[in-house]
Design a protein that fits this description.
The structure is a homodimer.
Chain A lengths: L4 E2 L9 E3 L29 H8 L4 E3 L2 H7 L7 E3 L1 H7 L4 E6 L10 H13 L4 E6 L3 H13 L2 E7 H6 L1 H9 L3 E5 L5 H9 L7 H13 L6 E3 L6 H20 L6 E5 L4 H15 L5 E7 L4 H4 L2 E5 L8 E5 L22 H8 L6 E3 L1 H14 L6 H20 L4 E6 L7 H8 L10 H8 L15
Parallel strand pairs in A: 5-15, 6-7, 6-9, 7-8, 10-11, 10-15, 11-14
Antiparallel strand pairs in A: 1-4, 2-3, 4-5, 12-13
Amino acid sequence: MVARKIVLSESEIPRQWYNVLADIKMNPPLGPDGNPVSPDMLAPVFPMNLIEQEVSPDRWIDIPEEVLSIYAIWRPSPLVRAVALEKALDTPARIYFKNESVSPPGSHKPNTSVPQVYYNKVFGIERMTTETGAGQWGSALSFACAQFGMECRVYMVRVSFDQKPYRKAMMETWGGKCVASPSTETKAGRDILEKYPDTPGSLGIAISEAIEAAVSDTSGKTRYSLGSVLNHVVLHQTVVGLEAKKQLETIGEYPDVIIGCAGGGSNFGGLAFPFVLDKINGKEIAIYPVEPAACPTLTKAPFVYDHGDTARYTPLLPMHSLGHAFVPPPVHAGGLRYHGMAPTVSQLVNEGILEAKAVTQLDALAAGILLSRTEGIIPAPETTHALATVVEEAKKAKEEGKEKVILFNWSGHGLLDLTAYEKFLADELSNFVLSDKEIEEAEKVFAEFPKPEALKSR
Amino acid sequence: MVARKIVLSESEIPRQWYNVLADIKMNPPLGPDGNPVSPDMLAPVFPMNLIEQEVSPDRWIDIPEEVLSIYAIWRPSPLVRAVALEKALDTPARIYFKNESVSPPGSHKPNTSVPQVYYNKVFGIERMTTETGAGQWGSALSFACAQFGMECRVYMVRVSFDQKPYRKAMMETWGGKCVASPSTETKAGRDILEKYPDTPGSLGIAISEAIEAAVSDTSGKTRYSLGSVLNHVVLHQTVVGLEAKKQLETIGEYPDVIIGCAGGGSNFGGLAFPFVLDKINGKEIAIYPVEPAACPTLTKAPFVYDHGDTARYTPLLPMHSLGHAFVPPPVHAGGLRYHGMAPTVSQLVNEGILEAKAVTQLDALAAGILLSRTEGIIPAPETTHALATVVEEAKKAKEEGKEKVILFNWSGHGLLDLTAYEKFLADELSNFVLSDKEIEEAEKVFAEFPKPEALKSR
C-alpha cells in the first residue's frame, strides 16, 4: 500500500522563511510623488518590524518561537500523494499536494495572519483592522487575534456579508468584529453610502475603510493588515514550500511541475518560491501560477505601476494589473478575483521563471468535483483553478508516457463555499472570458502612471 | 516548547477494532413477537457480513486493507495536548483530545461509513440509503459511497434540509442524492404528507423512508445504513480510542478521566471502549458520557426495551430511552438530540463502569467559545457538551491540586453549524431542562414492552 500522506512532527516545522527578494531584482514601490516609498511613510499603516521585513534583503528570516508554537496547531500540514486521482486519470504522473485546508480557518491564510498579529503585538499594537471579500482572510486574522488576545475588526464587502452569514459567525466565534462595508464607521464608508445607499460594496471600499480605521486611531495602537500581494505576506507563506520540500526529500522525490492558484499570489508564492530558488540555481522545473480566465491578470494584463486598491490609498506597485478599478465578472473564484498580483510573482513571470495559465470557471469546478470524489476533500473554489491545471498536466503525462512528479497547493477547503458546487451541479453556471476590448478599457486607469523597468535578475 | 500534537504515520493506524461485546453481558434485541431477533430477520435491511459483525463475540476484528487505505485520507488523527486551554484555566491537569474533525466530512462519522459501505460493496450491494438529521451522517455516507463508487440516497429531515442547504450541497458534491423527508418517493412519506402537508419532518419519518427505500428495491441491490447506536457502528469507531492509546503510550501518559459527548453513543464508545477493557481489568479510570440536559437519556431515563425509531420499524433494543416518540426541545445539539442510546453504552452505565453527565446548552456553547479561542478549532455543537465537562474537570483538578490526565473526543468541527454560535453570542438562546412530568409522559410509549434483565458483566 502506497502511503497517502507524508507527515512530519512539530519539531520539523521549518525554522526560517525564505525571502525571494534576496534572489531577484525588483522595481521599488512608488509614492504619490512618483519617488520610491520610504519605510516611515508606511508607519501609520503597518508596524515598523513588518515594514523592515517587507524590504529585507536577507535570504532567510527566522520564524519566532511564538509563531512556531501557534503554527503547531495545524503544521506541519500533510503532504498527500493523490493516489486516487492518479488512478482515476490512469496517469504515470506521481501527484502530490500540500494540504493547507487543515488549519482551523480552513486555508493557508493563517500562515501569515499569525506572524502578522505577532509582530504587531510585539510592537505594542492592540487592535488590528482589515478587509475581507469572500471571508477567508477576515477569518484567518480573527483566528490569529484570538491566539494573541488582540482586538480584530474586519470590514466585509456587503454583498458577501449578506450572502455568507457563516463567515461573520466564524469571525465572531473567534472574538473578531465583522462589519458590513461600506459602514457608517468611517468617512470613506459614509461618503459612499451618501452617494449610493444601496451599494453592494467592493474590496476597494473595504480596504479604504480598514486603512482609515487604523490610521485614524489617535492612540496609535491600531494597525492595518493585508492578506496577500506584499512581500512579507508571501514570505510567511514560504513555510508551505519549505515543508513540502522536506517531505518530498524523505521519500526521495523532487517535483518536475509545480502548480498553485494565484489571486494576490500568496499561496502560490508560498509553495513555489523555495523551488524558484532551485530553478534560479539551475534546476529544471515548470512552475505554473493559475488564475481565472475571467480575471486574467498574469496572462492578459501588462506589467505596470498601479495601485493595490480601488481608492488609490496604497503606493504604486510594479505588477501585472487589470487596472485598480477593474471589477471581475461574478465567477466563483473567491480570493482570485483581484485586479493585481504580488510584485514578486509578476517579476518572475516577466523573466520566464514562472509560466502563468488561466482556466475557466466550468473547468475549475469540474476538477473540484473530480478531486472531491477521489481525494475526498472538497476544495475551495480558488483551489479548483490549480486542480484543473493538475488534471491537464496529468493527462499530458499520460499522452507522453512520462513519469512526471507534480506538486500543487491545496490552498483551502470549500465547506463555506458550497453554493458554487450546488450551482455547478445544477448547471446554473457559465464561463466568462474577457474580451481584449474590455481589458483595454480597464487598463486606462494606469495609462499616466510611471512605467516599471524590465529588470533581469539572472 | 511542549509538543501540541502527537502524530503517527499511516502504518500505525490500528489493524483491528475492539469489540466490547466480548467483555460484557447483553440483553438480546427482540423482534415484534417478543423473541430475540435472528440474523436472517435483518437480512433485507443490512448485508449479512455486517449482521455477523453486529453479533460477533470476537474481541478483536480485523480492519480490511481497503478500509485502512481510505482511513489513511485523514487517519491517524492527531492527538492534541490542549496547552492553550490548560493555560487559560491555569489547571494542573494535562488535557488531551483526539481531533476527529480532520476527516473530509468534518467528524468521526466516516470511521464507520467507510467500512459499512465497504462491507455492502463486498456483499454485492450497489446502492445505500440512510436518513440524516443535522446532516453529519448523510455527509459521511455520501463521502464513503464516492470512495467505493456506490450510489447513495439520503433522506434529510425537511426542516434541516431547508435550514442547512450547505449540507445537501456537500452530499451532492460527493455524488450522493439528498431528498427532503417526508418525500413522495416512499409510501411512508406519502402517507405523512397526505395527513400533514406542512410537516417539518422528523428523524423517525426519515428512518422509515430510508428503510422502505432499501427493502422495497426488488433487485436486492440496496441496503440501509445507520450512523450510531448499533454494535457494529460503535465497533468501527473504536479505531479512535485504540489510536489515542497508542499515541498516549508514546509519551508515557495514561488517562485518569475520559470524556465524550453521547447522542447515539458512537463517538463516545469509540474513544472509551478500549479503555473500558482496561477498567474491566482493574484500571481506575473515570469515564463520562455527556448528553444535553434537554435530552437526558442516560441521566434521567430508565433502562428499558424500546424501538430505535419513531415508526417502530427497528427491533426492540435494550437501552436507556426517553421513549421512541420523544421530540427533544430545539437545542443546538445536532446528533445528540436522540431519544435512545447504544445498548452497549447503556449496559455499561447500568453497571457503573460509565458515569453519565448532562450539561445545558448555554454551558456547552460557552465552552465551545472558550475552546475556539484557545485551541483554535471551532467545535461542533455536539462536541461542546464534552467540552463543558472537560472545563469542569480541569477546574476541579485545580481546586484539588491534582495533576490529572484528561482525554476527550473532539468529535467534529462546527463550520456548518455556525448559526448556533451566532445565536449564542447574540444572547438569543436559553436553556431547556426537562421536567420529571415531561419525562414520565414521554416514557408511556414503552410501558407495555418486555423489560430487560439487570445483567452483571463482572
